[in-house]
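Changelog-adjacent note: as of this version, every example in the card shows the full chain rather than a window. The one below runs 368 residues end to end.
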Amino acid sequence: MAEALQLRGTVIHDFPYPAERRKCPHRALVSLTPAGSCAHLCPMCYARAYPWSRDALAFYANTPEKLAAELEKAEICPPLYISQVTDPLQPVPAIRELTAQVVQVAIRFQVPFHIITKNGDGTLWLLRRVPTLREYPFWWLSLTIEAPPAKQKVTSPYASSVRERLLAVEACAKAGIFTVVRTDPAIWGLVREEDEVWLLDRARDAGARHIVSAMGHFNRTSFSRLLEALRAAGFKGAAEEVQKIYGRGQAEGFFQTSAVIRAPLELRQKFHRFMREEAEKRGMTYAACLEMGREWDSPGIPHCEAAPQGRLAKKTRTGKFELLSGCFADCLRSCPDPFAPPCGRPELRHQYPFKFQSLLPRPSTLLG
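Full-length structure tokens:
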């Protein structure tokens, strides 16, 4: 049984990353659970390795109510990212139902939103639970498939099987939903080029339009858990190779801290060059997540997730939101009109993370 908690403070918040070296656009993060409260128990999970994470399952029961109240107040809203610290479709009934209720709030206000999951069964459940999702044009889905079946038993043993995830990709793609496959973290030494090619072939065949990947970053806790899981599953040689490869990495690039364990820069460059070429050969676009700059992504995509729905939205007189043309909430790099932003919030070009107050109506708006 998962424990029901009450979320205090504001629901909508941005990534905590500052403007310097930031790759992510503005997002309205919606936490459904405390960090790490996930039944999937993936050994390399960054959220489970936070000092403040909790292992016991819990969820914020008042999230839908608080989100609705904040959307009532807000005049502009970046795309919602539903549950960035735990899987929103993990096999816990209370958490899945909470996700469905949050999705229904998003649909009621017509705001764009985004879900990342490793649970194919949960994805198909959500489509049944909220059938209007099949026609709702302002959301997109990412299914993480980080390893082929024989190795997935190490990386995500309690998540859906690779087959179930691919079936969910296919179902969403056939419904016309913009569907992304993520192969991160590609833990080098456990996976190799042939594994990534296997995943890319099946992602393409299932109808994925975009690929996101990275070689991963770990702290001491998550890296230790990963090595222990590899050895326990009989991948002793892979554990030694992973330790050797990632031990050579340096803390440069996006994350600037000596606690970060990651693959060496030269290896990451080789990996992302290979992945982009292979994805594009298969008719998909590609982006590197966090660990590399935008020059490693396919040209022409508006942000890492590539979804055209991932735009800033502004409230209309009906009380519902409307996506702003050409504005992908990446105020730092690509405001459609830096001198007269269509959102009316020039401060968002410099607020990383944004302040919730910046989403609220201006006095002139209220008077008009």
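Structural remarks: The two ends are 50 Å apart (CA to CA).
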